[in-house]
Write a structure and sequence with these properties.
heterodimer; A: alpha+beta; Immunoglobulin-like; 2 domains; twelve-stranded mixed beta sheet; two-stranded antiparallel sheet; 1 helix; 14 strands; B: mainly beta; ten-stranded mixed beta sheet; eight-stranded mixed beta sheet; 4 helices; about 35% strand; elongated
Chain lengths: ~200, ~375
């Protein structure tokens, strides 16, 4: 009788262990499946530099709103700059993005003391800023918002919007009051367009 | 009770084994035949003086289009020093010209990322060159470069679809550097194009520079203008000459050079603070400044004197010294930072209308030039 009870307990224990393993494996598989899209959809910021030029300051893009963009609904990126203490009178930022996935609707200047213009380039847009002559006080960029870029997402997925160092003869740069060209560290931004 | 124990045990065991197999196959076993994989490895290296060029090859299935990639290469910091990512090889431009590159001498890594601007059906697939890295060899010995399979490479196709990057035996490259490799190539002699006093062809030109409507201020009446002649086959002859302005602001000068005579020529003119203009006829005209554009050369060049009147079109301002072929923040800032100045050095760089002072007229000219952007090319 005691032997039978012991066998019964052993059986229940074995079944319990096997069920536990099964549940663990199912959960592990589910977690793995969920991790794949989260890896590809990660929002990543990676520095990009031209090796032959010394980098001073930086330019980067950030999402204006905290929520991830949704297909079909416009979203905005803010172009930020830091000139590392240098007084700036002009800048060029080369913005590159997948034109089949994102459509740049408009670009709005956020610094009233700069005349900001944007032009098409092969990768996307070139943004130029020239300090207006009526502003005499020197200006230093310190996480300064220069421009708002309004995009319309055309596809679902993860797409990079890059500040590109150089395209043909054009360069991402800032120019200080001594006419010295500053090549900022340029950061790209990955945007995750969701359904 | 005893009778149902065995089937229950059997069923639970089968389920457990099935899930165990699925788990292992999903997480551990990665078949090369799976189409989600691409291989990344080095192509054949080449040497030039003390420079080493090393192409990176991406190999995917022909159905696997690649739209962007980030590849990380480990290099030997004791023997190699990274140089700029080489874009001169057109066969390595399959992912477009967009360039991102960074290096870390501390970790000995060279990271390259490229994003294509091509539409999906034009994206590369199969075996193609992703890009060429360029290193300077700094010490003799054996240097090893590798594309480490565990690094955070990214190869992405349209969709986007992230491919898993795998390496091959060619993903590690060992190069032997001898002392002869450490000698840099002699610096290439840069030949400027001085005004040739001899040649079979002389071009006598009349030009109109944007912003100049009268005789320039004293000391600025004569300027150097570069001229290039291009035939239908793309052969070029170039030179520069001194051009002097008359009372109406028309600049007259000449260049002499050696060029085969014939028809179908285009002439490119670039002033000292100006964008290059392409002219295809002997007497071009335009309705408003900057509206003249041409493509097919139609100028006939004969031996001896050739007189062309290009004063019907404006040579647009915008590319200030040192000229780089594009109007950008350097050019606008050069004017902005020198407003009100009238010394000779500043005038030679920033006085666009040659009136003897850098002022708001010059600033307005350079701002309007931003929309033109660059030189007209061949």
């Amino acid at each position: 009788m005691e032997n039978n009870v012991s066998k019964q307990k052993m059986f229940v224990f074995v079944v319990f262990v096997l069920l536990l393993m099964t549940v663990f494996l199912i959960i592990a598989n589910q977690l793995k499946k969920n991790q794949v899209p989260s890896q590809t959809n990660k929002t990543e910021v990676s520095p990009t530099i031209i090796l032959t030029k010394t980098k001073i300051g930086r330019m980067e893009l950030i999402l204006k709103e905290s929520a991830q963009p949704i297909i079909g609904q416009p979203f905005s990126l803010i172009l930020l700059a830091d000139s590392n203490g240098k007084k700036i009178t002009g800048f060029d930022a080369l913005i590159g993005y997948d034109k089949t996935a994102l459509e740049l609707i408009n670009a709005t200047a956020l610094k009233e003391d700069f005349k900001v213009s944007s032009f098409d380039n092969i990768a996307g847009k070139t943004v130029n800023g020239a300090r207006k002559i009526q502003y005499n006080q020197p200006v230093v960029f310190s996480n300064t918002e220069l421009m708002e870029l309004n995009f319309k997402p055309l596809k679902i997925g993860v797409f990079s919007v890059n500040i590109v160092d150089k395209i043909n003869k054009e360069t991402t740069q800032m120019v200080d009051t001594d006419n010295k060209i500053i090549y900022p560290g340029a950061f790209s931004f990955s945007v995750n367009i969701q359904q | 009770m005893e009778k149902i124990k065995t089937p229950i045990l059997f069923i639970v065991t089968v389920f457990t084994v099935a899930f165990l197999w699925a788990f292992i196959s999903t997480n551990s076993y990665r078949s090369k035949a799976t189409i989600d994989h691409v291989s990344v490895y080095f192509g054949n290296e080449s040497y030039s003086g003390n420079e080493l060029k090393l192409p990176i090859i991406i190999e995917s299935e022909t159905t696997q289009k690649v739209s962007s990639a980030k590849i990380i290469v480990n290099y030997d910091t004791a023997h190699l020093e990274p140089m700029i990512y080489d874009e001169s090889d057109s066969t390595c431009q399959k992912l477009g010209t967009t360039l991102m590159a960074r290096t870390s001498s501390a970790s000995g890594t060279f990271t390259i990322a490229r994003v294509s601007n091509l539409v999906a059906d034009q994206l590369p697939s199969g075996i193609f060159c992703f890009g060429t890295l360029k290193f300077r060899m700094i010490a003799s010995g054996t240097a090893t470069l590798s594309i480490n399979s565990s690094a955070a490479h990214e190869v992405v196709g349209p969709g986007p679809k992230a491919y898993t990057v795998q390496t091959t035996t060619n993903s590690t490259k060992t190069v032997t550097i001898t002392s002869s490799n450490l000698t840099p190539l002699p610096t290439q002699l840069i030949t400027t194009s001085p005004s040739p006093t001899t040649g079979n062809v002389t071009l006598n030109l009349k030009l109109k520079l944007q912003g100049v409507v009268k005789k320039p201020a004293s000391g600025q009446e004569t300027q150097t203008v570069k001229v290039k002649i291009v035939d239908v086959s793309g052969n070029t002859a170039s030179g520069s000459g001194q051009f002097t302005a008359d009372d109406n602001g028309i600049w007259i000068g000449s260049i002499t050079t050696n060029v085969a005579t014939g028809s179908g020529y285009k002439v490119f003119v670039k002033g000292p603070k100006h964008l290059q203009k392409r002219v295809c006829v002997a007497t071009p005209t335009e309705t408003y400044p900057g509206s003249y554009h041409c493509d097919q050369g139609g100028i006939t060049i004969t031996a001896g004197q050739n007189t062309f009147d290009f004063s019907g079109v404006y040579m647009l301002v915008g590319d200030l010294p040192e000229q780089d072929g594009v109007v950008n923040s350097y050019d606008t800032s050069l004017i902005r930072n020198n407003l009100g100045k009238s010394d000779a050095d500043t005038l030679s760089k920033a006085d666009l209308n040659f009136d003897g002072i850098v002022d708001t007229q010059d600033y307005s000219l350079i701002i309007s030039a931003l929309s033109v952007r660059g030189d007209e090319g061949e």
